Amino acid sequence: MILSRIQxxxxxxxxxxxxxxxxxxxxxxxxxxxxITELARYSGSSEATIYRMCKKLGFEGYQQFKIxxxxxxxxxxxxxxxxxxxxxxxxxxxxxxxENIGLIGRTREVLESETVEKVIEMILEATFVLFFAVGRxxxxxxxxxxxxxxxxxxxxxxxxxxxxxxxxxxxxxxDLVIGxxxxxxxxxxxxxxxxxxxxxxxxxxxxxxIDSPMAKSADxxxxxxxxxxxxxYLVTNRIGELVVVDILYKLLMIKTGPEIKPHLESLSEALxxxxx
Length: 276
What we know:
single chain; 5 strands; globular
């Protein structure tokens, strides 16, 4: 377990190595997309420092380390198991509930109602709303587009970076792109949003990355709570984004009120043949 190994040697690292190690512990599913140069820049360390740290962890270099980290991130279930092995199933369930409830609470603290109101108006003024996301944020984008479609708001989700750029290049001033990324530091997603912005579309970011590249490229940012250091980030760090999408959906439903009632009734009739 690479993350456990990093935590185990953490206190023995130099101060600059701790910067890189701490960043990896907090955002491993982002780090696997970074070059050594990007990791050095975002963590505030240096390429030489990261190379030395990888050697201390038993790897020949950064590339070998990143491949091993990607494998670990791909199998998150093991990270949920308590290190002592003495906890009961109920203990684990309670812990996971507490972590998720805590993350939702932190999202409530950082989410600004004024910004939410601004985004609601942007959505209502848009002729087309697109959700952009990659990786583990993709299901949130898809859920958001389906919810908006239920309300009669023309919407779609794109989770492939190449498709995002192709679609973004043809957007107009009346279009709106909502990007979803926990860290706000995924290069492909930020580039897609920049293409959309250059085409004239308005941009909204849903992220926990304060002052991240994604946040800086947006017209409005809806911040989510972030997880604390530890292995549980692998299963809890998207809950805040899901809650924000749910807030937007329900506020839009309240805002449109009677206007969408005929649409919902028509939709209900259309769905009847698909149910037993």
